């Protein structure tokens, strides 16, 4: 798949498109609306979008847990682009950035439904399942 990854700047039109994408993928299927949430912490993340023909089709964010551990957030891909290697490509892309910044580990909170995908990328589950926005999640970590 021919995609371009570009930074997304908080408060821009591209950022608003990323909110809409995350809403479609993460909230609407469960009758929720991301715009009812406080998204101000997004301003502190490094945000990236995957674009195909100038259309945003996926997002992935990077932040810091501590000096040794980066955190990946908001891995959201429109349904029609799943299963084509884009998720792996995005994860590799952001893990490489974390590695270059000197992080030793990367953590994430993943949906239980995506746990097998993250295991294939070398992540280990480090928590029991818990509900986040009524959706089962687990905490995961990977050594870089």
Can you walk through the features of this model?
The chain has 144 residues and is of the alpha+beta class. The protein has a domain at 4-103: Aminopeptidase (3-Layer(aba) Sandwich). Helices cover 25% and strands 36% of the residues. The protein is built from three helices and eight strands, in the order βαβββαβαβββ. Strands 1, 2, 3, 4, 5, 6, 7 and 8 form an eight-stranded mixed beta sheet that branches. A hairpin with a 4-residue loop joins strand 3 (55-64) and strand 4 (69-77). The two termini are 26 Å apart. The mean pLDDT is 95.
The CATH superfamily of the domain at 4-103 turns out to be Gcn5-related N-acetyltransferase (GNAT)
Structural class, judged by helices and strands?
A: alpha+beta
Low-confidence stretches: none
Share in helix:
25-40%
The end-to-end distance, rounded to whole angstroms, is 26 Å
CATH architectural category of the domain at 4-103 = 3-Layer(aba) Sandwich
> What is the overall number of helices?
3
Radius of gyration from the alpha-carbon trace, in angstroms: 14 Å
Beta-strand percentage?
Answer: 35-45%
Strand tally is 8
- Main sheet overview: 8 strands, mixed
- The CATH class of the domain at 4-103 turns out to be Alpha Beta
Instruction: Using the coordinates shown, work out and report the CATH topology of the domain at 4-103.
Output: Aminopeptidase
Order of SSEs, N→C?
Answer: EHEEEHEHEEE
Dominant shape? globular
**What's the pLDDT, averaged over the residues?**
95
């Amino acid at each position: 798949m021919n995609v371009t990854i570009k930074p997304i700047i908080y408060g821009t039109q591209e950022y608003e498109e990323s909110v809409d994408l995350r809403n479609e993928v993460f909230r609407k299927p469960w009758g929720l609306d991301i715009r009812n949430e406080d998204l101000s912490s997004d301003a502190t993340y490094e945000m990236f979008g995957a674009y195909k023909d100038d259309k945003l089709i996926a997002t992935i964010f990077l932040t810091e847990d501590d000096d040794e551990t980066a955190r990946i957030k908001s891995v959201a891909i429109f349904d029609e682009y799943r299963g084509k290697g884009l998720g792996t490509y995005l994860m590799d892309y952001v893990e490489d950035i974390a590695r270059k910044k000197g992080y030793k580990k990367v953590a994430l909170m993943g949906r239980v439904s995506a746990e097998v995908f993250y295991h294939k990328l070398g992540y280990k589950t480090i928590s029991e399942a818990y509900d986040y926005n009524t959706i089962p999640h687990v905490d995961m970590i990977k050594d870089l």
